[in-house]
Specification:
By secondary structure, the protein is α+β, with helices and mostly antiparallel strands. The chain is about 45% helix and about 20% strand. It is built from nine helices and eleven strands. The strands form three sheets. The protein has a four-stranded antiparallel β-sheet with strand order 1-8-3-6. A four-stranded antiparallel β-sheet has the order 2-7-4-5. The longest helix has 26 residues. About 35% of the residues are buried.
């Protein structure tokens, strides 16, 4: 039953498109179901990447780095149907960033050693994982662009949309301070952006958090050139 669920999840993963069914079945058989509590460390920067890649099935994880002084920078939010740790899946090398569960998370963990065994026996898998690596590099470029070139309002809007999409009620339940940490902004500036969005009717404070009456408008703001 677990292997069947893993096979279905991997079959929906665009990065493995084109991989023969038999090879995908071997990867699914090797995948290990995992769960993480909110706030639990998934991967820690500098640790060996032998655990390979996590495919998130439900929930949201945060990819981030920190300076020795304790300042954190969020590189991205990874949700259902997305992967993190792709490079370690291929080379098993040290983690390049911390990954923390932002919400309760369930997923599939695919170890480096198991992936290598399949890669060495199937050229199609090797090609697929090279596409995985290329996609990861492109995503890193997008993440750097998001922090360096997009306005704070765009970063806040994008984070709100992604956070709401992972909550069963569609609410954003993080505090303003937590949102500020996610978008690499100061709390006063993020508060000002949230006030502007509230004035435009794009967010609405409720008892349990923030409601997004018009998520499409927020998404358009986040993606505006």
């Amino acid at each position: 039953m677990v292997a069947d669920a893993a096979l279905g999840a991997l079959g929906r993963l665009p990065l493995l498109a084109g991989v023969p069914d038999a090879a995908r079945a071997r990867l699914a058989a090797a995948a290990r179901p995992v769960r993480y509590r909110e706030g639990e460390v998934v991967f820690r920067r500098g640790e060996p990447g032998t655990d390979g890649m996590l495919l998130v099935l439900d929930g949201l994880v945060r990819l981030h780095v920190a300076t020795p002084a304790g300042r954190e920078l969020t590189l991205g939010l990874i949700g259902a149907g997305e992967t993190v740790g792709e490079i370690a899946l291929i080379d098993g090398g040290p983690r390049s960033a911390d990954v923390t569960a932002l919400t309760p998370v369930s997923g599939l963990l695919l170890r480096h050693a198991d992936a290598v065994a399949v890669i060495e026996s199937d050229l199609a898998v090797a090609r697929a994982l090279l596409r995985t690596l290329a996609a990861r590099l492109r995503r890193t470029t997008d993440q750097v662009e998001a922090v360096g070139l997009r306005s704070l309002a765009q970063r806040v809007a994008g984070a709100l949309v992604k956070l709401a999409a992972t909550d069963p009620t569609g609410l954003v339940r993080l505090s303003q301070g937590q949102i500020a940490a996610l978008v690499a902004g100061t709390r006063p500036k993020v508060n000002a952006v949230l006030a502007e969005l509230r004035g435009r009717g794009l967010i609405e404070p409720v008892r349990a958090g923030l409601r997004l009456p018009h998520p499409a408008a927020l998404r358009a703001l986040a993606e505006a050139e």
